[in-house]
Amino acid sequence: MSELLKEIADKLDSYDREQILSVASCVSEAISQGVQPNDILNNGLFAGLERVGAKFKMGDAFISDVLIVAKAINQSMEILRPLIKQSDIASKGRIVIGTVKGDLHDIGKNLVRIMLESAGFDVIDIGINQSAENFIAAVKNNNAKIVGLSALLTTTMAELKKVVSVFKENGMDTKIIVGGAPVTQSYADEIGADAYGENAADAVEKVRELNGG
Amino acid sequence: MTPAQRVSLAIIGEKPDKLPIIVINSNTFTCLHYGISIEEYITDPHKCAEVHIRFIQDFGIDCAMVAAAYILYGTGPEIGVHWEHADGNFPGSVKGIVDSEEDLSILKVPAKPSGYFKTYVEAIRLVNQTLGNTHYLTANVIGPFTVACFLRGIEQTLIDTMMNPELFEKLMNFSTDFSVYLGETIRDISGLRYPILNEIFLAPEMIRPDVYHAQIAPYDLEAQRRLGPNPVPNSFAFMGKAGDRHSQKIAASLNQAFFGVGESIEAIKDAAQGGRPAGYPFPVGVSGRALNSWGVDKIISFLKEAIDCLISAKGIYPSINLPSVQTDTPKKAREMVDKLNAINEFRNNYVI
User: Fold this and answer.
1) What mean pLDDT value characterizes chain A?
2) Residues B260-263: contacts with CB within 8 Å, 24+ apart?
3) SS3 label, residue B78
4) Residue A194, Cβ density class (10 Å: 0-12 exposed, 13-18 middle, ≥19 buried)
5) Is B91's pLDDT higher than 60?
6) Residues of B in contact with A53 (CB under 8 A)
7) Strands B83-84 and B92-93, how do they pair?
8) Which residues in chain A have their CB less than 8 angstroms from residue B88's CB?
9) Helix, strand or coil for residue B63?
């Protein structure tokens, strides 16, 4: 059975259209052989994405690769979802993510969402152009312990600082991770963020650390 | 030597009288500094042109991209793509309009410019009319792949390259016609000499360079051929050579040097192993983040170190690239004035 799960991960990591297209039938086969849906999810689908994510971090895979794999996983999830009780999926933690006010860019934020979900996090994506107040409301409403803020523009980078300040002024103990093209570790330190995600794969590692490892 | 001559010499690797200063995006700064609103900037070509002209003249800019942030011009509401207007910033496209082949079949290349695109072209014409003989003015002609991304949505377009190649090909065929229409309109109405094909979504981390060479480059070449006889440089495709990972990594370093990503002297040295970006001199870029967060001394010190290294060790006469002169508050705009003046003064006093 583990061979079948490895095959699923291999196919996702193949960068081959036919192989990726056959992932869904492989998932169906695993189900028919009695493999537990959670096993298929964690040790097949997510394992494949994790491999691609590691390559992405090293510069050997590209955003398009991650998106293609994520799409294939989504299609397989359509097969798995009816078989998995929500309570059987052990969430590793809940995080609110979004792009800050004034900024309409979301590719980076979407990639982070995809990779966090694949790493087992429950992600509440509040979208683009979001105010500090909206981030706070989403954190409170969803009882999230971590919030991820994204900004692509030089002119919206300052909004990251504002959101961090508003969280602190409101006495929130939410851990804050920031990222986006113009953002750096030193900027993250300067504005008092708890972590900086250099790219989507790095963001997942940092969120794991913020979540207690 | 005029600014245009200075840039032209640096592009072919020859020694200019002083190093050229090149600016790509400056829209939010120019709006704040010269006191016009974003709404005026995107709807009034005279105001848009006026602030560009003043900006270029006031800060010693040799090469500027007119209304650069508007990579979306022509592929926005003019053709049914919805723009969202963010508070205090420029609007953007948030969703494509091509969900299927049927959607694509309905789309038509416009016969003439309208809406925001008309404003854009007129602004370029006005700036070119005033500065076109002395300065090196460029403008974006959105490349076929970038047009496709605006029409289909970038994430889905990237996925299509592998998973739906038939639709991707049809989309790229249409997008090439569209890109040529954008380029012809800009060229014919504005009279601009140096338009560039802008494939802004071809950042090195976005897509496999070999996918670019196999599935996108042929369309870019086709658009360039049709927009000839003078080539329209494909400046933002930092993809290296097909099948050559080493050259692709050098091209990624050139992208870093051009946009000032991380302000890395090492990346600049790596990039110097390759050529110049199409249509530009070899760049020493200072990012918008650094321009906003660094003090004058740190900016000048970085420029001096990078330029000294390129000229003495490599024999390269670089440009000072400011890809993002952007500010979000009047206070930051005032600080930016000091920094731009310091950069201009440094450049004027730098002995090559």
Assistant:
1) 91
2) B260/B285, B260/B286, B260/B287, B260/B290, B260/B321, B260/B323, B261/A181, B261/B285, B261/B287, B262/A184, B262/B287, B263/B287, B263/B290, B263/B302
3) helix
4) middle
5) yes
6) none
7) antiparallel
8) 102
9) strand
Residue B52: both structure tokens together: 């560009």
User: How much is the ipTM here?
Assistant: 0.90
3-class SS shares of chain A: helix, strand, coil, % to 5:
60, 10, 30
Q: Does A59 touch chain B (CB under 8 A)?
A: yes
- Best residue in B33, B95, B162 for a mutation probing chain A (most A CBs within 10 Å): B162
Please calculate the CA angle B14-B20-B25 and round it to the nearest 5 degrees: 135
CA distance B318 to B346: 14
Instruction: Answer yes or no: do A156 and B161 touch at CB < 8 A.
Output: no
The rounded percent of chain A whose pLDDT value lies above 90 is 66
- In this structure, are residues B298 and A160 in contact, taking their beta carbons and an 8 Å threshold? no
A150 CB within 8 Å of a chain B CB: no
Q: How far apart are CA B203 and CA B236, in angstroms?
A: 8
Per-residue buried b or exposed e for A30-69, using 16+ beta carbons within 10 Å of the residue's own CB:
beeeebebeebbbbbbbbbbbbbbebbbeeebbbbbbbbb
Residues of chain A contacting residue B292, judged by C-beta atoms under 8 Å apart: 154, 157
Q: Which residues contact B130 (CB under 8 A, 6 or more apart)?
A: B49, B53
